[in-house]
Amino acid sequence: MENLVVIDLGSNSVRMTITEVHDDGTTKVVAQEKDMVRLSEDMGPEKILQDDAMARTIEAMKKFVKTFKSLPNVHLHAVATAATRQAKNQSEFLTNLKDATGVEVKVISGEQEAYYDYLGVTNTLPVVNAVIMDTGGASIELIFMLQRRIQNLISIPMGSVSLTETYLDPEHITAPALFKLTTAMDRLYNDIWWLDKARNLPIVALGGSNRTLAKIERRRAKTPHFENIHGFRMSTDQVNRVFSTVIGADLTERKEIPGLSKDRADIIVGGMVPIVNLMRFLDSDRITFSQSGLREGVLYERLHEMKR
């Protein structure tokens, strides 16, 4: 039996999943942890990780190490995504992280991140044709899938944190600022030539900002276990209603919206605009939500390796 520890060092949060992988190929998730470290905070156009953000991330990693260090037969797979990928002081940060925690983190490309998302989704949801969208803190991954096979994919170096810092005042969302952001997203999608081939397809959504759409809707409908959003679907009207509620609130009011965590309230508009615009661009009639993404993709890749 192997204890597979997968750590996803993201731009907004750092997450860990520990899965027991048994000799017969069966699996059991035994621990999941998350810390909102906001690693990409104030990176700016210089793309420099800030001292406070790096310190928060190192402290979170120390907690993770305490959780798994006493487990037997650990196979550790720690990856870093957009914020670390873009950072000019990447080497310094990763060296300090390893010195402080003993964890060696691999920086993966945006394309590899998108591929792991694809593995996580297709191994846990019966999706055939779709556009998979993962909105993170500093990047957006899009995967165009037909007959469960990747046709095209792209990683866009902007996300909920960076879009908020570039376009929005989190305290009060103004119409001019929102217009500039939505216009920028429309131009971006127009420049991705293969998105035209994906028109009218449903979207499969992952990432914290996208999942928050589902959580708000499920809380509104008083759905039991509202956080269990895997496979949950929302129509265009439902998405637009939630988005309208979010953009119509100031920061204090957003912190009180059921289903929206207080530590995401400042970046949630910047996090939701990409999927709302994509839904309109593709003329999609629904979104299906996935709780499986990068970490689950790493798991399925590992299971495939062990079968060889």
Helix and strand arrangement:
Elements: E1 2-9, E2 14-21, E3 27-35, H1 51-68, E4 74-80, H2 82-86, H3 90-101, E5 106-107, H4 110-122, E6 130-135, E7 140-146, E8 149-156, H5 160-167, H6 175-190, E9 203-206, H7 208-220, E10 233-235, H8 236-247, H9 251-254, H10 268-282, E11 286-289, H11 294-307
Parallel strand pairs: 1-4, 4-5, 6-9, 9-11
Antiparallel strand pairs: 1-2, 2-3, 6-7, 7-8, 10-11
Helix pairs in contact: 1-3, 4-11, 5-10, 6-10, 7-8, 7-10, 8-10
Summarize the structure.
This protein is of the alpha/beta class. Helix content is 42%, strand content 21%.
Question: How would you portray this structure in words?
Answer:
Belongs to the GppA/Ppx family. This is Exopolyphosphatase. With 308 residues, the chain is an alpha/beta fold. Helix content is 42%, strand content 21%. The chain has two domains: 107 residues, 2-Layer Sandwich (Nucleotidyltransferase, domain 5); 164 residues, 2-Layer Sandwich (Nucleotidyltransferase, domain 5). It contains eleven helices and eleven strands. A six-stranded mixed beta sheet has the order 8-7-6-9-11-10, sandwiched between helices. The longest helix has 18 residues. It is globular, with a radius of gyration of 19 Å.
